[in-house]
């Protein structure tokens, strides 16, 4: 272990950027330049530590060693760059670079209000995320975990309307108060348990904290309670059911925030925390050796209840996703399902399954960030948020919808996208254990089929259907699954989703949300105050109906649509500019979508990040053996089990668990 300031510098670089961003609020180009520079600097610091970490070096910075200040009795405020920490920090810092460019294009494209606050909060969230990655113990990770909830609140509540404030309060209630309380309680119990066998310790150790394993033999019940408290604390941000409903409501935020929440920082911090608990607090040996006595089933390992919850979550969330017509909400429930892949793979305790779970963190990040980038570009350029209004949109946005197809294939686990590699490793692990673990393998396969079921309609609608007539979208029957007009001609002979939905039908789209889900609204709900409002990137007026062509557009299906209760990202942009335009509606304009090339469908600030991240998802899938993330996953698992990875595959699972337990 080497004392080094770089873990601290990687955390602080974006914190310093906050001051520069705020100071440059009158100069947007400079303000956004600071965001990009901070992202590049953070990534450079992380990469500078990567080669040594791959060779077994651990970089550590300690408050006590640097300043002589003791943070808590026996517990230091410390940061360390170990293989698991560098794994998460590398992913977050790399994706922030492209998210910074995309966010600039998106926020300018919608002329959003309070952009300085937005970029400052964005920088703060990445500072907290890297702090979580490099945290050396449970106290340090708890501090950054709670800080992340606080600094992302302004992003969730960015629109400042009643819906955004409700979603923001729900987000804080779940993640800051709920998850934080669980995590703190579990941390205190681990502190007390380790104090029973010597000096208290909360420092992460590959394979589990040795003092905790010793204490668990004397106090098994308290050790079990602490384990489930820690899993619940991190499981809130990982959106495990029934702690997940905040995630769909957080879709009121601008799309770059949705990408941050779902692909990089918030939900991934929850999955990362679960990995720390399973791999470096308890360890597979203690989890396996500390069984629960379940009436009617006998003794089961602590991992089994976690695996069952994860398997249920990934199945149920996939089914719910099929019933969403709003694209971002469909992606939200997809995230809930995909995160449970990570938790399920980790909780199976098999080395192959663990590698698959760890590799699914970047695999999901690249694919899901691509999907949200695409959803945001569609919204900025066409104001369309509903799948039922996207027929033929592939000719209007060919690059965007091609990238969406790549991301969807990755979510479904289709080769050669990265999601195939991660899920393949998890299936190998489940099959090698056998027995009841075949149920978990079945859940993985079922969810893959469901992924295809709820993503294929989007792709099919975009590329293989026309605006004037197309099939029902989304998958399930009215009213939960789409518009009644989707299933044939109406009384006037007008076909498909371009018809005139009633307000009852449109409201019904999200009636199947869990209790506590907030209603949604769209920009159709807002009436015009002035006649001269236009989007800042209104490069192609045929796709953006404005007051100049209001008369013509009034005959389009979208213009005739009544007020609704669904929400999209443009609401706040219209509200806070003081200009409302009831002609800025989704769906194809009069005459259908105008055909564009991949170079003219949007601005480069949005198209370049979409292309790069989608390409990254393919590269991770085609060459996983050369991908640093897979190699890091091998190193992490080798450290946990204490033997080379090629040997781990030759040891039967029961023997392996016995060996690590001893």
Automatic annotation (TrEMBL):
Keyword Cell membrane (UniProt): yes
Start-end of Acidic residues biased regions: 510-522
Transmembrane region(s): 6-24, 36-54, 86-106, 118-136, 142-159, 171-193, 221-240, 260-282, 302-322, 331-353, 399-418, 438-463
Bias (Low complexity): 552-562
Pfam families, per database record: Proton_antipo_M
Subcellular localization(s) per the UniProt record: Cell membrane
Recorded GO CC terms: plasma membrane
Membrane topology of the entry: Multi-pass membrane protein
Domain NADH:quinone oxidoreductase/Mrp antiporter transmembrane: 135-441
GO molecular function: oxidoreductase activity
The keyword Ligase is annotated on this UniProt entry: no
Full protein name: Proton-conducting transporter membrane subunit
């Amino acid at each position: 272990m080497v004392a080094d300031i770089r873990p601290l510098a990687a955390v602080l670089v974006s914190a310093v950027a906050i001051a520069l961003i705020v100071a440059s609020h009158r100069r947007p180009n400079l303000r956004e330049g600071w965001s990009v520079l901070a992202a590049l600097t953070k990534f450079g610091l992380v990469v500078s530590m990567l080669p040594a970490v791959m060779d077994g070096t651990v970089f550590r910075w300690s408050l006590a060693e640097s300043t002589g200040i003791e943070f808590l009795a026996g517990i230091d405020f410390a940061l360390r760059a170990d293989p698991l920490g560098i794994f998460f920090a590398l992913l977050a810092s790399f994706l922030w670079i492209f998210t910074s460019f995309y966010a600039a294009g998106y926020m300018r494209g919608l002329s959003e209000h309070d952009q300085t606050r937005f970029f400052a909060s964005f920088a703060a969230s990445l500072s907290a995320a890297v702090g979580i990655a490099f945290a050396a113990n449970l106290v340090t990770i708890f501090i950054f975990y709670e800080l992340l909830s606080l600094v992302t609140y302004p992003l969730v509540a960015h629109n400042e309307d009643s819906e955004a404030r409700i979603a923001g309060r729900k987000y804080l209630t779940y993640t800051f108060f709920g998850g934080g309380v669980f995590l703190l309680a579990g941390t205190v119990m681990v502190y007390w348990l380790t104090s029973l066998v010597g000096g208290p310790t909360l420092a992460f150790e590959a394979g589990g904290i040795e003092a905790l394993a010793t204490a668990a033999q004397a106090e098994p019940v308290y050790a079990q309670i602490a384990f489930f408290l820690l899993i619940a604390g991190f499981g809130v941000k990982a959106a495990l059911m029934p702690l997940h409903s905040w995630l769909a409501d957080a879709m009121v935020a601008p799309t770059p925030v949705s990408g941050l929440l779902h692909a990089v920082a918030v939900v991934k911090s929850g999955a990362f925390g679960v990995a720390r608990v399973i791999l470096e607090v308890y360890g597979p040996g203690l989890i396996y050796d500390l069984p629960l006595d379940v009436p009617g089933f006998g003794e089961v390992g602590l991992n089994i209840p976690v695996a069952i919850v994860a398997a249920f979550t990934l199945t149920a969330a996939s089914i719910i996703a099929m019933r969403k017509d709003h694209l971002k909400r469909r992606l939200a429930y997809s995230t809930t399902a995909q995160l449970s892949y990570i938790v399920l793979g980790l909780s199976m305790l098999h080395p192959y399954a663990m590698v698959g779970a760890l590799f699914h963190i970047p695999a999901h990040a690249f694919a899901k960030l691509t999907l949200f980038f695409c959803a945001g570009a569609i919204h900025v350029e066409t104001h369309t948020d509903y799948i039922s209004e996207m027929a033929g949109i592939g000719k209007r946005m060919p690059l965007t919808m091609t990238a969406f197809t790549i991301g969807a294939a990755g979510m479904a686990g289709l080769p050669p996208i990265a999601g195939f590699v991660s899920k393949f490793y998890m299936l190998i692990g489940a099959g090698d254990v056998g027995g009841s673990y075949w149920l978990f393998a079945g859940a993985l396969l079922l969810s893959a089929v469901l992924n295809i079921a709820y993503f294929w309609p989007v792709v099919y609608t975009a590329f293989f259907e026309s605006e004037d007539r197309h099939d029902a979208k989304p998958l399930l029957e009215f009213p939960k699954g789409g518009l009644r007009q989707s299933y044939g001609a109406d009384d006037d002979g007008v076909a498909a989703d371009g018809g005139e939905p009633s307000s009852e039908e449109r409201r019904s789209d999200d009636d199947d949300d869990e209790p506590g889900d907030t209603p949604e609204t769209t920009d159709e709900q807002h009436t015009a105050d002035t006649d001269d409002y236009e989007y800042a990137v209104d490069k192609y007026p045929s796709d953006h109906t404005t007051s100049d062509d209001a008369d013509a557009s009034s005959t389009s299906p979208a213009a005739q649509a009544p007020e609704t209760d669904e929400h999209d990202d443009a609401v706040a942009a219209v509200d806070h500019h003081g200009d409302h335009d009831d002609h800025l509606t989704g769906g194809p304009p009069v005459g259908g979508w105008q055909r564009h090339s991949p170079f003219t469908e949007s601005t480069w600030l949005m198209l370049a990040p979409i292309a790069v991240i989608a390409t990254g998802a393919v590269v991770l899938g085609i060459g996983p053996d050369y991908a640093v993330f897979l190699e890091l996953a091998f190193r992490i698992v080798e450290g946990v089990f204490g033997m080379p990875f090629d040997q781990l595959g030759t040891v039967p699972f029961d023997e392996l668990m016995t060996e690590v337990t001893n």
